[in-house]
């Protein structure tokens, strides 16, 4: 770059851009006028400098054309600059506005087309043609093109269709292919499109499209058609309008092909215009024949295949289900090009199309193709606005959660959006794989959505790695995948039946996924002929001979045909005849040339024609892969990036390599193979080794880990050549690192490969010399071999590890690993054996003998109490963690062996294992695994030790400990144990559901599909236990069944199917009252699958459900059989709700058969019933809500069979009441049925009938239709009569008809229990029975009316809408006067014809507006109180409501009142249940918030997370504002909807809260009180906002409910915490209390953080002061010591000291002593001030005289500093002051002036006014920075650096002295100019103002 030897005189600015500015300038060295383009340092990037160089180089290559010629690269004021020749024109954009006259336009357009043609013929594509880049001189008509900063060189060969990777250019002028959203490469025709936009703008005065954001611009160019210019400017000639539209064609093939052809047509237009003044239509483009060899990008012979692809995409968009489309065929057949054709239609749907290519040389790099594909997508996102990126960031955070690092590990670009993420916790292999697949699906779901579907194209599937194959299979088969089209291409000749891809595709097809295959065949001669004819612009007949020749050589392979034609052109056998304007070829000459028919040989031949240096770089690139970047190429070729780019330019020019920015891609696999074939076989290993070494040397430690796969894949290829032991050892460690990273990404095959290489590189004595490396290496390898299915190799490695392990600890590690792997494989007994062996190494034995085992279990249980040591269970969560590795290993082993023992054949050892785990945790500290141990111990306390209270405490503590440890891997497990084994024993079963739902989601987060599936079948059973309606449970179960099926957990899926069929049986939809079978389900195969998996839970569930159905059906024999089977397997349901249900049903069954049994058996039954009832009694005492019904009913049955009738009566009633109170409708039905049987035996007929009716009603409400039918068959009086047929004759009197209608209506109304449905039904019945056309129910509440529901006959049904109780809304719907009258009189109001005579109500405006005819208002009474009104009207006929009908309507109203009260009661009960669940969620929220707040004192980051938590769980959005010294600062904010986050930011930036304004936040900040706005009206919003936009923002973010709590700490208001919701009345009383508590804890956190900051600052100041003080004190002491030592040396030497020297030395001693006295005095003054002991000795002082004395005393120092003092005092100023202290103030201020302004004058002014004195000291020194001026009067603070000395006390002391006098000191200063200090003092002493200094 040319150095800046000359300066420039800048003139006018010609153009200003964001990154560069262009000025007219004059070079001062030679006076030449130039244009100077200068980069702006604030905005320019490194690539802008590169573009400047490129602009210079391209411009020099275009010398002689009408372009603004670049002169030199230079600098201006240190900024890169580029000189251009001066040109007198201005940018053409200044002429854009009104439509340009046609003649002027044509003259300009002809010249411009000619210039563009010249540029293209020099091989340059401008890429940014627009009016701003065209300089035009109107006077001369001359124009020039410039700004070639993003120009590109066109290639000789035509590149294949490919979307651009980097979108560059001006959006309004960008061609469709330039947007990167089309499967088209950019060529010279892109400039013609931009020229079309420019012409359009000049002719019409506007752009062809109007858009608001980049995405919309792209959509316009790709998908929208502009209006014709002639439609906007009617006077424009049609041919000129058509010419512009031709330039704007979406497809480049449909535009002009050359600028010369365009120029020809424009010249003809200009000629016509000049000759005739008009344009005659003519055929456009007749002379538009290109002399460049350009092959068309159209498809030939692929129309059907393309249509099939398009249909697949449409299906994916419409249905949302994923689909896999496979395109197969030989290499070069056109698979990739065909699939890429989808790019454009996907863009039109605003979808994403991404592409990744598997590489045959990089198959050991896991998921590299997915990384490649998504990297492009992430790069697209990074080009969007900050608001858009923030929205994506939030979507990714929500989708990925704590597992984001898993995605970053394989797609590092994601970190650019999310930032650094914590490493997820390690999981066992199966859970790790589940988690990875789940996280990847979550990641894809961010991009694959209905609003923007995703097409993912994976090319060359024949080379895919096993990890990618599994991921592909998961994406296709998993139902969570939505709006995703997976496209794959592979070479079918390289994929045989045993290829992993073929096997996986078979599995996918068998699973029923949508898979479509498209097989591409070679092109026919006819298709090739059409292709060649279009390429050479000749008729197909002329091209036929050449087409036959090409087909003969290439067999119709498109890629080969293109390369063959390109070779013919390059070798001059296919050339353009300019004279004839056509292409010519000679078939005979081509035959004679002897071209090969092997495409790789052809590629090698082409490559060998390149320069040797280019060939070398291409060889290296081929070793790296299909695609690489310039930096990597520079490293591996050991040269600079510029040199590597130059050497590649020939390959790019030939079209063999495609360049997109710094990324280079081989044109085709065959080109890469050809380049690789250039390397001799014997040299290939050495080349790879050299590449690997260079790559490794170029990377730092972090980069090595990021690019580990790239490095080791190269080094491994050449490892045979490595002989140095150190290098072999280093490579082994790199392979070990790569293997572990691949394993973490679930790519086990790749991991095995890397680890095997690492093991191979070890020396023979590795187990002796490198044991610490060999042992973990072989351990990892053994695990990966096992997980990869190589079981024999894994077992051999395990044996090797056990033989080589040096310590018992290492041996136990091997056994534990084998245990885990056996558990994954379902080999539970083998897993237990491995675990027990490992425990033996630590001295732990699990007895085999049952008696010894029982005793050991008892002893361990006793030890738990001892080891608790008096601690509260809750306090265990705060106990220390275990630190001893042996203890941690033991706890880990116990936790791993426990589930295998429980599930397998040794459940008897499970309690002992858990007890040992608990005792080790209690004695030595806990680990992550202790949480599961505590929870398991909890359910043992329930099931084995009958202590549900302690069980609940242990479980709650376990959950808290798990959260404290941050262990997500086991969170789902402990929540599962809590919700399904512990909580319901002491809390209502309804509270289990939030726990289990949280547990299910936690399992998904951790990839723990095993426990997620456990929860799935258990939560369905709990819904049955809770008494939910059967239809509701069936619907509820479907999602969990789908989850079990999709996660391939067959036993759990079959168990849920059993539950569904059990419910179907109860509904009577199976083949019998005790059968679960129907046409779609068979019991035997289902049970076989459960038994095959040894799934004990499924077995016991089956027998329990059979027991229940048999009992309800009355089949006692079958019930007894299943009861015995259930009892035998009941341990599998330990501590589940089913355990209690078993005892309940078995007891009822035994009680029923008791009378029919022999006496001995009756006694046995009685003993069993007594034991069962004791259990039920204990549980009922622990949790009456869940178990009182069961205990009471069993007690009633026992009383029945023992003859205690009174006790039986009481217990039956108790059971019924308890069941009804707790919502157990099924148990209520059973209790009623058994009570009926009891009373039937006693012949109480009426009572029996009543109980039977209630039983039938309960079963009906439950939905057990089979049971209802059974009761109706057995008891005829329960059977309802069939309805009367429609054809039957009906006869009745009117009153009978009225009575019939009332009965029917009452039955209908009384059957509704849900309030909304009741209101809808009531109004429908009233309309039907009352003869009204409109009906309203108006509630009366404390004298106020509220419309509860409204319906009309002209609407479909009764919507039951709620309306506002406001007076205006009410008055518009009903006459208020009638309601008020009816309320006061409690009588009905009947108007026969309100339109004619409204009687006393005629003044009500409602009648004039609505004009009703018949009106009736009927009070609805309940227990003599009017609770509502039925208002009926008919607007068509008078007299609709007769007095005779009133009785019927009043009866109807009475029934409505009863039903309404019942509905309200149910609402309250439901609300109570919901409130209990909500309370649990609030507690969880408070716990999570507290954990967040207490996690760190960096409250800024914490409160960002806190607002997100609140926005997710508590409100729609939340913000935190702080009051920082009177300024409101927004600390954090978050919205539930990430898309509205930008609105929150805009609200904070445009309308910040300010103290003193009337806004809710500021009012809370000022008054410190809670503000709750439950229903924010539009008027309120307008009153709080500044303008309409402000109000619109409030509406858009969703603001109807607002709750603001103050943040107060130590009685000091700190800020406000705001919650808002889009729904009114969102926050209840409990929510307000929760918000207050959140605010209190948040305030405490802020206060603690600030106290810490203040403390740290004080400590820093103290340290700083001590450092400065020691320095300041040492300085005079050192000077004093030197003076005295000099005198002493003279005295000891006997030298006579001259009087002058002695005087000088003693003066210096005295001066230093004075300085010491001053410093110590300042320190003492500060101490006195701090203690409030600074005493004032007031007296009459004349301020002017005092100042003079101080100036005189300082005269020596002022003289030494060369400071002249000018003093002004017009008159004496006298006051009551302390003269000594004031002198100290003046001294400090003057010292400051001379210290910071040596050699500068000092001005002092003394004056007085209005009882005050003013002392002003002005210096002309260095001044004080504005940010320092507020602090210089504080202790230890200084206005400048430490170089000026001083302790920072003088001005502090001066301020405190001035304040002690009731005055002040202030400063005004300008840096570099000086400072002015002003001291103001009252002349008269005012004790009230100066009472205290401290």
From TrEMBL:
Sequence ranges assigned to domain Protein kinase in this UniProt record: 8-267
EC number(s) given by UniProt: 2.7.13.3
One Gene Ontology molecular-function label: ATP binding
Organism superkingdom: Bacteria
UniProt catalytic activity: ATP + protein L-histidine = ADP + protein N-phospho-L-histidine
Keywords on record: Kinase, Phosphoprotein, Transferase
Record domain Histidine kinase: where: 1668-1885
UniProt protein name: histidine kinase
Lineage: Bacteria, Pseudomonadati, Myxococcota, Myxococcia, Myxococcales
